[in-house]
C-alpha cells in the first residue's frame, strides 16, 4: 500500500519540477503555475514556491517576455502575433525589445520575410497571389499597414 504524500513531499516535488523546467528555458509565472497544477500540486504550495523563485531572481516575467519576443522576432513574426502570444502566456505588457522597434523597422522585417518566402515580384496584375501573400503576412502578425507596404515593395532590378 502506497503512503499518502504529505505537505513536504508536495513542496519538494513543486520546487524540483519548477527548477528543472526553468533550467531548460525561461517560463512565465502563468506557464509554470499551469505546468505545476497539471502535476496535481496544490495551489497554495505552487504560489509559495513561485514567490520564492521570483525573490531569488530565477523566475522573472520581464526577462521571459524579452527572451520570448526576441526569439519570435528572429523567426519572422510580427508585433501583433508576438504580443498575443505573450498575453496567452500571462504577460500583459510590451517588452522593451518590441517597444524599441519603429513601424519602419517592422515594415523592413515584413519585406524581408516576403522576399525570402515569395520574392519581390510586382503583384499589381495578380490579385490572387497578392491576397495569398497578404494572408501569410497577416498570420505572421504584421499590421495591415505593414503588410500593404511590404506588398508594394519591388525588387530593385525590376
Descriptive account of the structure:
With 158 residues, the chain is mostly helical. Helix content is 68%, strand content 0%. The chain contains nine helices and no strands. α7 crosses α9 (144-152). The model has no long low-confidence stretch (mean pLDDT 92).
Task: Give the SSE map.
Elements: H1 7-24, H2 29-38, H3 43-56, H4 61-74, H5 79-88, H6 96-99, H7 103-118, H8 127-139, H9 144-152
Helix pairs in contact: 1-3, 2-3, 4-5, 7-9, 8-9
Uncertain stretches of 5 or more adjacent residues: none
Range of helix content: 55-70%
Relative strand content: under 5%
Span from first to last CA?
Answer: 78 Å
Average pLDDT, rounded to a whole number, is 92
E-strand count: 0
Structural class assignment: mainly alpha
Give the overall form.
elongated
The description of the largest β-sheet is: none
- Give the C-alpha Rg: 22 Å
Helix-strand topology string: HHHHHHHHH
Q: How many distinct helices?
A: 9
What's this, in brief?
This protein has 158 residues and is mainly α. 68% of the residues lie in helices and 0% in strands. The mean pLDDT is 92.
Keywords:
158 residues, mainly alpha, 68% helix
Amino acid at each position: 500500500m502506497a503512503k499518502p504524500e504529505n505537505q513536504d513531499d508536495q513542496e519538494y516535488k513543486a520546487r524540483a519540477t519548477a527548477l528543472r523546467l526553468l533550467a531548460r528555458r525561461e517560463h512565465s509565472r502563468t506557464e509554470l503555475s499551469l505546468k505545476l497544477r497539471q502535476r496535481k500540486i496544490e495551489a497554495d504550495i505552487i504560489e509559495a514556491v513561485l514567490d520564492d523563485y521570483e525573490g531569488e531572481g530565477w523566475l522573472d516575467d520581464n526577462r521571459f517576455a524579452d527572451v520570448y519576443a526576441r526569439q519570435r522576432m528572429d523567426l519572422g513574426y510580427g508585433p501583433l502575433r508576438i504580443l498575443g502570444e505573450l498575453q496567452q502566456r500571462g504577460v500583459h505588457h510590451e517588452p522593451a525589445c518590441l517597444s524599441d522597434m519603429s513601424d519602419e523597422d517592422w515594415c523592413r522585417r515584413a519585406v524581408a520575410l516576403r522576399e525570402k518566402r515569395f520574392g519581390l515580384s510586382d503583384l499589381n496584375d495578380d490579385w490572387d497571389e497578392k491576397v495569398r501573400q497578404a494572408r501569410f503576412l497577416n498570420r505572421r502578425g504584421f499590421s495591415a499597414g505593414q503588410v500593404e507596404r511590404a506588398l508594394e515593395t519591388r525588387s530593385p532590378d525590376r
